Amino acid sequence: MLDVKQTLSDAGESMEMATMYLNDELQRIRAGRANVAILDGVRVDSYGSKVPLNQVASVMVPDARTIAIKPWDKKAIKDIEKAIMDSDVGITPENNGEMIRLNLPQPTEERRKDLVKQCNKIGERTKVQIRNVRSDIKEKLKKAIKDGLSEDNEKDAEDSLQKLHDKYIKQVDALLDEKQKEIMTV
C-alpha cells in the first residue's frame, strides 16, 4: 500500500529541487551588477578536459561593473578567454597578459525587458515542473484508492499536496519578483 507521508515528502522534495534550480538559473542572468555566478556555466579546456572556470582561476568582483579573472597558470589565459567568448555570457573579455577583465555594460531599457522575459520563461518552466509533480502524485493517490487507501485519507493527502504546491508556486513568484526588481533597478 502507498505510504502517503513518504509520497508527500517526495513531492515536497521534488518541488524544492525545482525552486532551487530556478534560483540557480536566475543568478546566472546578469542584471547589470557584477556577479561571479554568471560565469558558473563556463567550462575551460584544461589539459584535455573541460573544467569549471573557478578550478583554473580565481574569480573576483573588484567593483560593481567588473569581474576580474586571474588564472593560476598564465598559459591558460587564452583558453579561459576562448571559453568566455564561446559561452552565452555575452561579454567580451579584456586580456592584459596576466588577468582577464569583464566589464559589464549598463543594460538598456530594451535589454532589461528582454531579461525580465527570459526570467519569466524560466519561472514558467519551473511552475510547470511543480504542477507536473502535483499531477503525478494525484495519479498515485487515485491508484492507491483501488489498492485499499481510504477516500478520506486520499482527500487529506490531496489537500496537503495542494498546500505544498501553493507554497512552492509562491516561492517561485517571490524569486521572480525579486529578480525583476534587481533587473529593472537602474
From TrEMBL:
GO CC, any one term: cytoplasm
Stretches assigned to the Ribosome recycling factor domain: 22-184
Main location: cytoplasm
Keywords: Cytoplasm, Protein biosynthesis
Keyword presence, Cytoplasm: yes
A GO MF label: ribosomal large subunit binding
Source superkingdom: Bacteria
Protein's cellular compartments: Cytoplasm
InterPro entries noted in UniProt: Ribosome_recyc_fac (IPR002661), Ribosome_recyc_fac_dom (IPR023584), RRF_sf (IPR036191)
Entry keyword annotation includes Cytoplasm: yes
Pfam families: RRF
The protein's role, per its UniProt record: Responsible for the release of ribosomes from messenger RNA at the termination of protein biosynthesis. May increase the efficiency of translation by recycling ribosomes from one round of translation to another.
Family per similarity comment: Belongs to the RRF family.
NCBIfam families per UniProt: frr
UniProt name for this protein: Ribosome-recycling factor
Gene encoding the protein: frr
